[in-house]
Structure formats: C-alpha cells, structure tokens
Amino acid sequence: MWHPKLCFYQRLSVSLVAGFFLVIALLTTASTYLQTSIKHEGEQRLHLKLAEHLASDNPLLKTGVYDYEALKNLFHTLMLLGPNFEFYFADASGKLLTYSAKPGEIVRENISLEPINQMLSGEAVFPLYGDDPKSASRQKIFSAAPVYNGDELQGYLYVIIGGSQYDSIKDGLQKSKGVQQFALVVAAGLLFLLFALLLLFRFFTAPLKRLSDDMDRFRNNGFDLTGSGIKLLPWRNESRNEIQRLGFAFNEMLKHIDKQWQQIKTNDNQRRALLADLSHDLRTPLANLQGYVETLSLKDKQLDEKDRAHFIQICMKNLRNLKRLIDQIFELAYLESGHIKMKLEVFQLAELLHDIAAKFKMKAEAKNIELSVSLQQAGGFVKADIEKVERVLSNLIENAIRHTPENGKITLEVTGKADRLVVSVADTGVGISSEEIGKIFDARYQASNTERDATTHVGLGLAISQKLIALFDSKLEVSSELGCGTKFSFCLQTVEPR
C-alpha cells in the first residue's frame, strides 16, 4: 500500500526502480542459467563417449578390474593430462572403489546409478547431471561406461566433466580485475539507463503535476478562479497528448465554473436587493391598509358615510396594489423555477392583436393616445401559448400607455421575417436612455424617466415578459431614443393553418 504523501512521480519512480531491478535480476538469472545449461550440454555431448573409449582401450578396464591401486594411478595420470576431468570407479551398486581424488576430498562413498542408467539407455535429455562425490549435494555433468568381467557387470567408469580444479580456475577468472571492470561498466550502464528513465518519467509527469497543483489551488480557493493564483497554461485540445487534452478540458471547466460562480454571486446579490425592494413595496400598501382599517375600526361611529366610503375606497386600492405585486412575484418565481407548462395551439396573430387593442382602447383614449394595429402579414398563423403571448403584449401596451404623453401614438405591428412573424409594440413616448436600456429587463429596475401614475408598479413586468418570450425560443428586443419613443419586438414561429 502506497504512503499517502507520495506523489504520482515518486510512486512511479519507486515502481520503476523496483521493476527495473526485478527485471535485471530475472534476466541475469535466466541468462546465467541458459548460458550454463548450453555450455554443460555442449561439453557433455562432446565428451559423451569419453568413459566408453577409456573402458574399451585401457587393459585394466577392458578385461575387468583386479588391481585397484594400479587403476588409481591410471586415473591420476589421466587427470594430469586432462585436469578438467575427475575419474571414479564404482561397483554395480554405486559404491566408489577407487578414484583420482586425493584422500579426504571425497564426501560421499556412493553415487546414484539412476542418471548413469538413463545415459546408457540412450534416452537421456542433456544436460544430464550426476552426483559429485566431492560434495554432499552438488551435481555435475558426467560421462559413464559399464565395465564387464566377461559377461558379468563389474562396475562403472564414472568421469566428472569440469572437476574441482576447473571450478577453482573459473572462480579465479570471475574474480579477476578484467571481469570486475567489465561488470562495473555493465552496472554503470544500467544505472545510467535507470537515471535516464527517471528523468524521462519526470519530463512526462511534470505537466500532470502542474495540472494537479492547479486543481488543488482551485479547490483550496473555494472553487473561485479569482485570486487563486492559477495560471491557465496553453493546453491544446487538438494534441494527441492525453495530458494536453486533459489540461485543455480543465481550463475550459475552470472558465465555465468561474462564469457560473460569478453568475450565482450576481444572482444572489440581485435576489437580496429584490427581496429588500419587494419587502419595502409590500410594507407600503400593508401599512396604508392597516392604518385605514384601524381608523375604520376605532372611529366607525364617528365617521359619516362619505368619509367611511372614502376610507374603504383607499383600502380597496391598497388591496389591489398588494394583490398585483404578489401576483407578479409569484409569476416571476414560477417562471424562474423552470416548471412551466406550455399549452401550444395554432391561432391567427392578427385576430389576437385586434382583441388586445380593443381591450386597451378606453385606457388609451383616456390619455388621448391613438392605439392602432398595422398588419403587413395579415393572414399569418403562429403556434404558441396564446395566454402567454397575450400576457406579454398586455405588459408592453400598459408600459407604452404609461410612458406616452397625451396626443401620442402606440402601434401594434406585424411583419414577416423568414419563417417567423415579428410582433412589435412601438410608442412615441419619453424613450429610454442608452445607459439604461441594457438594464430594463432586470427585476425591480425602473428607469429614471419612469412615469408615475396612481397604480403602484414594482418593475417586474419586463422581466416577466422576457422570460415568457424565451419559452418560444425568441428574445424580447428593444430600441429606443430618449424623447422620441420606444419599440419592443419579438418573433413567433409561423405554421400552416389547419
């Protein structure tokens, strides 16, 4: 299990070092074993008939062994001629009777006959190892041949290939200065390779570390990009490097999260301001209503019919303003929740405009305002929620009447635009300044040139209208010139009549 404080590069480095030395150890062991096995097989096959030739060519062995001391001298002479070999004679049970070794060098007096019989059967798999009489456990390659006295098996000539003298010389060579220098060079090369691999890993993991550090700083800063100290590195999305693409995605994620975070803070501030303003707007009609109701309650018998009727009329006015305000608050909250049910139907837009114009005709005439309908696309049919379209147009016409002075003009206009109809409400009123035109759709915002009348207005009408129009994949657009009038426009999708 990894220590929790180890970084990715450190864990990767530890894994690399451990794996590197494990692979080197396995390769060295396998190489040594394979090299030794090949060498032993070659030597054993080369000297496979050595014991057979000695047994058939030497008179002491050819006719049977009788003089073991003479045979011992023969073995000693042969070992002097071939120091790579050790000679033994064993009886039919594997007991050593004579040998070329010096007294005291022999550790085991009996050898196993199984490998000898396996070799003599001709089914041996080389290299084939037999017991080394000079060791209790070691085994070596050998050559063996049976020795007969007539037809009777007298024993075996057992020749060890690569005796103790050969091993001593080989060990000495391995400890020689040249071999040690060669081993040192190989070890240095392997260490250099390991160091180069660690640097290469460092190079490849450095971008990942920078990306991880940026993520930590972003998290520790409360997921706020401002003041986090994060430098957005130039990651490339089209790169084939996965870390480059991951970094690009992280940058995009940071920008998106930061944008949403700033929007959340802005919305939160706006909600706080809206709540404060709405609380004030609710308090005003409630306070007025409470004052007049208390007056009616305390002085009911002292008031004449005219005063009582006047107080009741004022109470009703405050109740209407209060209901209007509460209705708009609930409507805006409902729209912002996103749980809107649309009742789409096909209808003729011109007919709706004439109906709405008739509804506001008396109110417009009260201010001597001309309210007209201009239809460049008279027979246009649209598919929308007729109730919501009527709500938007009613808001726009009410605003136009309130901001248009006497003898002014308001025009409801329909024009064509590709597969859509453009609906406009234009007036000749006071207009909106260029500094304020971008804020009029914010909830509770009222322009500085807002006209006052007897009805309380809380500045939610345009915010509600904009959200309603967004339900039809459109946008409420405005153009205005201060002192010359204002024009609001939106689009509706046209359809063929049924």
What is the CATH domain class of the domain at 345-493?
A: Alpha Beta
Euclidean distance between termini CA atoms: 72 Å
Low-confidence stretches: 454-458
Q: How many β strands by DSSP?
A: 12
Q: Provide the spatial order of strands within the biggest beta sheet.
A: 2-1-5-4-3
If you consult CATH, what is the topology of the domain at 345-493?
Heat Shock Protein 90
Elements, N to C (H/E)? HHHHEEHEEEHHHHEHHEEHEEHEE
Overall pLDDT confidence: 79
- What does the overall shape look like? rod-shaped
* Number of contiguous helices: 13
What is the level-2 CATH architecture name of the domain at 345-493?
Answer: 2-Layer Sandwich
Percent helix among the residues? Answer: 40-55%
Largest sheet: 5 strands, antiparallel
| Fraction of residues in β-strands | 15-25%
Radius of gyration, whole Å? 54 Å
CATH superfamily of the domain at 345-493: Histidine kinase-like ATPase, C-terminal domain
Structural class by SSE content: alpha+beta
GO molecular function: ATP binding
Organism: Agaribacter flavus
Main location: membrane
Transmembrane segments: 12-34, 182-204
